[in-house]
Amino acid sequence: MTVGLFIPCYVDQFYPGAAIASLQLLEKLGVTVVYPTRQTCCGQPMANSGFEHLTSGCNSLFIENFKDFDYIVAPSGSCVLHIRDHLHDDNSPETAKAISGKIYELTSFLTDILKVKTLQANFPHRVGIHQSCHGQRGLHISSMTELVEPAYSKPESLLKLVNGIDLINLGRKDECCGFGGTFCVTEEAISAKMGKDRVADHLDHGAEYITGVDMSCLMHMEGILKRQGSKVKVIHIAEILNAG
Amino acid sequence: MIKQAGKDHAELADDFNRDEDRVNWHDETLWFIREKRDKAAHKIPEWESLREAASQIKNNVLSNLNNYLLQFEKNAVANGIEVHWAADAAEHNAIVHRLINEANVVRMVKSKSMLTEECGLNEYLAKHGIEVIDSDLGERIVQLAEEPPSHIVLPCIHKKKEEIGEIFHKHLGIDAGISDPQFLTEAARQHLREIFLTRKVALTGVNFAVAETGEFVVCTNEGNADMGAHLADVHIASMGIEKLIPERKHLGVFLRLLTRSATGQPITTYSSHFKKPRAGKKMHIILVDNGRTVQLGRQDFRNSLKCIRCAACMNTCPVYRRSGGHSYHTAIAGPIGSILAPNLDMKQYADLPFASTLCGSCSNVCPVKIDIHEQLYKWRQVLVKEGYVPAAKKAAMQVMAGTLSSPTLYKLAGKAGRFTIKYAPFAVSNSLNPWFKQRDMPAAPKQSFGEWYKQNRD
């Protein structure tokens, strides 16, 4: 099985640690991983701002980079959701559709395809899980408090395999952090307030680390934590699953 | 409603956020209601199939609206109700005005009707010398405060009890400094009792109109619609044409969903059926289009007309809870208002579909399964194509798209210093960048993952 590793642009540029951990974790689990070096971005920043019609360049590039893999895996729920829902190409609609069907967010690839039941990882810390909306409500990687459905969480099931980890409970299990792409600057007041409130929930419950499947939400909360001078850190879930 | 001083959602939200304690109070008050809704929903094991049933019934209504409207009209007329058709807000308001004139009165009592807010009925009638008193407690409070409702189910949710005490002191003559809810409610009760007893024309909204029987159902917790309608000689009911359901038995689905979604109650205190006027009295129904058939013709947005106005999407919306209903500068605030309003006026409401993180919680609580957040995304595409976004944003997006379409440009932009990637709004380190106002930037790593990979694996 050969997996194409898709690293979202902001992870590539700002959080290479999350990308390296994703690569190493997949390799540890016996997967052959290739990182196509001509990749850039899924196109979501434009599309969510109303400019989906400007994403054809990103779409063709994505297809060119990833069409030949058995699976495509990315350490992000949001970018994967964008590819699943919006990747299209008038010249090769079938290839685009095939890619949408074989792209996975990292933790669901581990639980659903690799069916990981054990991990050799240590992370002796108190950790709060941030449910990123696109992974949760878009890709259904965990149950949602709004719906009457059985409780489940793919990221949490993996974190529970980590030695020494102490997962905290939150007051609001799945409220948005307020990042929202360009929303974070166009609606600065609300975005920052949502971020502050989300961070406060983790702090109130004694988190040492806030983790999640999406670095964009974590980047937002990190921005708030740093401004507040907090010692609490954000960490991508791949880095915990790959720790020790 | 016009924009307050021409401000858009972000600016009005910024104003609201100057008082953080109030934002926290507003957020927690509405979150409490969202949690009550969750508890009520989880007591119904078949909740999700109930939502699906409601959605399918409404889909059926929308696909056969012309037939159901004619069927409803025929049955309502046979019951002795007079039916009127209004193409838009102006026609609706003129019909109401005419009916009031025909009754030879200059005063009317009105229960909750978001449609009349949408049509600006109160302002219109005031200009023509007709006094309207809103009888829903929350609506009466905002009416006395000369404000629009900030929420479609809880019109004065933005007001604290101390502020309501002040309003009642000023307008209803109670002593100053009273904030006891029971006392305030009693004061409103006494005040409204006099209104109910003296008004000869009463207007109500409509929650559901049944095509099969020609009757309509009005849901209230205060019984104010009933008191107004039963004591008046003329009952006018205003309804949007999408309020129809095919048969009476379908009420079993909607009445179970409506109030559980709205407030977490099993059902409204009063779910009153109105079928025919009492002897010697008159009953009118005004069927209002006001843009609904245009929306019905928009393939991507037509199912927004399934809405039963429960406001669950507002209570759950993390943006609404922190920006307040008035920040939406339209009669129907929140996520659902943000997909309805652009249909009425794209230019005026171009900001609303962007007032969301697209978190999707709204679609999950919607009792009729409207894909609200997906429609917000689609409205953004429409508004950009129709030219309702700032030129600077368009230019920035074109640069971003160009950079991200080219691996070479992308790598160059990264190499030029990770802080200066122009397309990353959080990456420009200066005080003019809104990101930086309350948040710090990520630390610049020594190398990108791409560079690391080249060095270590390629």
From TrEMBL, chain A:
Q: Which GO terms describe its molecular function?
A: oxidoreductase activity
Q: Which InterPro entries match?
A: Cys_rich_dom
Name the domain of life this protein comes from: Bacteria
Looking at the UniProt record for this protein, which Gene Ontology cellular component terms does it annotate, in alphabetical order? cytosol
Pfam families listed in its UniProt record: CCG
Signal peptide range: none
Which residues belong to any copy of the Cysteine-rich domain?
Answer: 3-84, 127-221
Protein name (record): (Fe-S)-binding protein
Its organism's taxonomic lineage begins at: Bacteria, Pseudomonadati, Bacteroidota, Sphingobacteriia, Sphingobacteriales
